[in-house]
């Protein structure tokens, strides 16, 4: 009987993609996938280190596996991803029944290490070098991108896929662990990216989302030829079958005139721009070492408004960063009011060991102040997003249908009419009454109502579309 693997994934899109790759690899090595840790011979946790809370949740889930391991010592337990890279031996100390620790730059070693564990060779660990453990080249080589096989069965929907174009990060924002856990920034060769996109198109994938920590900083140098992000988008745009190209996450300084005009001139490119601002205060941005001022960000924002007036822009904010005063926090509120982001992801600062902020600045904003600032900023963000979404009532949007909405899933699985959801080109979520067969189709939906996160509408009949209702984003 084939070995059964269960994988639990937390964290960012990069982790979702890493899990897809690891599973594709394990299937090639004879494993089958199961949907509960109980029935699995091998349980893998793909982990995140960005905030302490994410790590504590993993350690607490691992704690629950202790008894299962005592009952069945043959069950293999593995920890992969950023927390594995950051904690290394500490994982074995905190959870002694873990057999395997693998960093995100060493995922290709998993099948071989599992075999060693099976043969009785004991615990295994594969991690990359830290940023001070050798020359640039040697460190970079120890962080390998892992993109061997695409497995449509492992994706939430077969017609959408993540596609990695870059690993690592060299920005070293003072609060962030990513440059340590995922290593130096490295662009993948354009030929590899293009050939993977072709494979995805052949598998029926219609929308790709390009992934990188600072995706728009992408560069690949080969001999005397350099491909930048705009050049890569132009090549991807040629691929038949791919109808939408999205990309996350962007770095404000690299949102150039050239990139924005490229997005404007290539109809398949989504004018959805996630460009984290992090704080509306220059002093805080300086402590964060983000490399730009609020003025620089606003210049970029106005460039987006001028070149891509239909774009939707979203942001990330950290509240309660070291030394953040009330006045500095209020500057973030004013920026949310000024920019009217489509959405903002708001995080309370969490001190991360090994980062510059942890070494240099005390984590001095009290927990309850962080929570209050989080709620206040979210309240402003949601109020403005709802106002802007309501302005779309009456318009027609083109939606790539993803599947039944969460509410719909609870309803009768045999029901003919279910609530379906999809996304517009600008990444707005749209809910409408439809049927399951519509998943994967592009449909025009007329917007009737809206909340801060969702547009609610009705599928347009062909007649209405043909008389020329304009399809907005
Ligand atoms: N504490 C809180 N939020 C953080 N982020 C990154 N590091 C931290 C941290 N130490 C947030 C940033 C980033 C998003 C992915 O997570 O806003 O853009
Ligand atoms: Fe972290 Fe800054 Fe790199 Fe984003 S750009 S991954 S926040 S170091």
Automatic annotation (TrEMBL):
Residues annotated to bind [4Fe-4S] cluster 1: 12, 48, 82
Gene3D superfamilies: Methylthiotransferase, N-terminal domain (3.40.50.12160), tm_1862 like domain (3.80.30.20)
A GO molecular function held by the record: tRNA-2-methylthio-N(6)-dimethylallyladenosine(37) synthase activity
Localization in the cell: Cytoplasm
Chemical reaction(s) catalysed: N(6)-dimethylallyladenosine(37) in tRNA + (sulfur carrier)-SH + AH2 + 2 S-adenosyl-L-methionine = 2-methylsulfanyl-N(6)-dimethylallyladenosine(37) in tRNA + (sulfur carrier)-H + 5'-deoxyadenosine + L-methionine + A + S-adenosyl-L-homocysteine + 2 H(+)
Residue ranges of every copy of the MTTase N-terminal domain listed in the record: 3-119
Cofactor(s) listed: [4Fe-4S] cluster
Keyword Iron-sulfur found: yes
TRAM domain sequence ranges: 390-461
Role, per record: Catalyzes the methylthiolation of N6-(dimethylallyl)adenosine (i(6)A), leading to the formation of 2-methylthio-N6-(dimethylallyl)adenosine (ms(2)i(6)A) at position 37 in tRNAs that read codons beginning with uridine.
NCBIfam families recorded: miaB-methiolase, MiaB/RimO family radical SAM methylthiotransferase
Protein name: tRNA-2-methylthio-N(6)-dimethylallyladenosine synthase
Source organism phylogeny: Bacteria, Pseudomonadati, Planctomycetota, Planctomycetia, Pirellulales
């Amino acid at each position: 009987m084939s070995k059964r693997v269960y994988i639990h994934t937390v964290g960012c899109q990069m982790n979702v993609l890493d899990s897809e790759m690891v599973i594709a690899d394990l299937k090639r090595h004879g494993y089958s996938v199961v949907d509960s840790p109980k029935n699995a011979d091998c349980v893998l946790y793909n982990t995140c280190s960005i905030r302490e809370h994410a790590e504590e949740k993993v350690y607490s889930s691992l704690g629950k596996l202790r008894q299962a391991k005592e009952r069945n010592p043959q069950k293999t337990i593995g920890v992969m991803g950023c927390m594995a890279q950051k904690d290394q031996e500490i994982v074995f100390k905190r959870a002694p029944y873990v057999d395997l620790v693998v960093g995100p730059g060493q995922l290709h070693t998993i099948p071989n290490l599992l075999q060693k564990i099976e043969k009785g060779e004991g615990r295994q660990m594969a991690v990359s070098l830290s940023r001070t453990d050798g020359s640039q080249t040697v460190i970079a080589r120890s962080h390998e991108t892992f993109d061997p096989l695409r497995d449509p069965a492992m994706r939430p929907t077969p017609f959408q896929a993540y596609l990695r174009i870059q690993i690592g990060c060299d920005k070293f924002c003072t609060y962030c662990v990513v440059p340590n856990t995922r290593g130096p920034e490295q662009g993948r060769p354009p030929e590899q990216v293009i050939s993977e996109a072709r494979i995805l198109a052949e598998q029926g994938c219609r929308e790709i989302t390009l992934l990188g920590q600072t995706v728009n900083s992408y560069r690949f140098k080969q001999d005397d030829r350099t491909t930048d992000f705009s050049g890569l988008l132009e090549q991807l745009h040629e691929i038949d079958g791919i109808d939408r190209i999205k990309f996350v996450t962007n770095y404000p300084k690299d949102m150039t005139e050239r990139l924005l005009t490229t997005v404007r001139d290539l109809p398949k490119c989504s004018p959805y721009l996630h460009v984290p601002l992090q704080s509306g205060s220059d002093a805080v941005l300086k402590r964060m070492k983000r490399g730009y001022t609020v003025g620089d960000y606003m210049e970029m924002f106005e460039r987006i408004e001028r070149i891509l007036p239909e774009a939707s822009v979203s942001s990330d904010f950290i509240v309660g960063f070291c030394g953040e005063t009330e006045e500095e926090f209020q500057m973030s509120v004013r920026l949310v009011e000024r920019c009217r982001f489509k959405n903002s992801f708001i995080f309370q600062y969490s001190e991360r060991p090994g980062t510059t902020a942890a070494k240099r600045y005390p984590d001095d904003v009290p927990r309850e102040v962080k929570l209050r600032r989080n709620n206040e900023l979210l309240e402003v963000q949601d109020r403005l997003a709802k106002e802007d979404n309501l302005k779309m009532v009456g318009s027609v949007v083109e939606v790539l249908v993803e599947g039944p909405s969460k509410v719909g899933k609870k309803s009768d699985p045999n029901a003919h009419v279910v609530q379906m959801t999809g996304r517009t080109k600008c990444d707005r979520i749209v809910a409408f009454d439809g049927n399951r067969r519509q998943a994967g189709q592009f449909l025009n939906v007329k917007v009737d109502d809206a909340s801060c996160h969702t547009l609610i509408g009705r599928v347009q009949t062909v007649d209405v579309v043909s008389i020329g209702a304009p399809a907005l984003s």
